Amino acid sequence: MRCCLLIHNIVARAGTERSVCRVLSGLAERGHGADFEVLEVVRGGEPAFHLDGRIGRAALFDRPVSLALSGWRLMLRLRRHVRRGGFDTVVVIGSSLALFAVPALRGLGVRVVFWEHFNFTADLGKRKRRWGRQIVARQASDIVTLTERDIGLWRAGATVRARMTCIPNIAPPPASAPRVDMTARTVLAVGRLVPQKGFDLLLAAWARVCADPRADGWRLRIVGNGPEQAALMRQIETTGLSARVSAEPARSDIASCFDAAGLYCCSSRFEGLPMVLQEAISAGLPCVAFACLTGPEELIADGVSGTLVPPGDIQGLAEALIDLMADPARRQAYSRAALQKAAQFGPDRILPQWESLFYGAPLRR
Fold first, then answer.
1. Which of 112, 1, 91, 89 lies closest to 40, judged by CA?
2. Prediction pTM value
């Protein structure tokens, strides 16, 4: 088996890139490194996350290109690269990219796997994402989703001829013990500063939290970069939250942020399976999250390992945070249950599923 994994580039500090690096590095550690190559549309620098040196890297273009204007060149270069490299499997990441890549691979006799990192309904308002998924459903050999629920969304929204498999993201190893010290008074939120992550909703909820005396001494810490930074900073200023909110750039030592936090909050409008929430439960953090379409409900058992709030319910989010702030015993119970849940997403459980997909399934042509 020789597999080429096609992605726009591997250098961004985001969940998709982190997941790709974890899976490929894990497969390399299990003896499969020589079988895989990362093929970037645009050549990038060093990955933001560890990528095992046994994984090859190549690129179709040296400079940024527009898919709309250069799609035909991408298709020709991809076909040439796959032929010359002797690849029998191509994994495509990103539905916009799939719009060009999947048709380009027709007739080459290769197995085409589409790896979904959001969910079927998440198109960011772009038609090419919707079109790409429709092409994937009909022409790809396999579709890998992050949740079982998303398989249902695909089948409800498209004519799916591809084989569908759910393989969750890999979570870090769980902490060795639940949290005992419940004195930390920081609510942590991590992610790209984009509308998807709902930090504007979190700040609106935080204004209500700060008005409740049970939240005295608690601070909100937002860690991340992105295009919404200026708007979020204005929201912090205009709502008078500066004294109780810190906004920091993304950082590589994110584990230290989890260690210093007392609670984690996921305010996303939509997700696939949020890696940062997986990391939070692996750290034994009690969590509060919006129960958006896919992701949080797969990671949090409501009332057992965390609290789920109806999507977009700002008042509900504020009340859930305040209730946990006022109840250290419940935070401790959530911490214990979170570690048990995190163990279900360890590499020893997830990597064999990838091995089965790549090495145990017949080739579809």
1. 91
2. 0.92
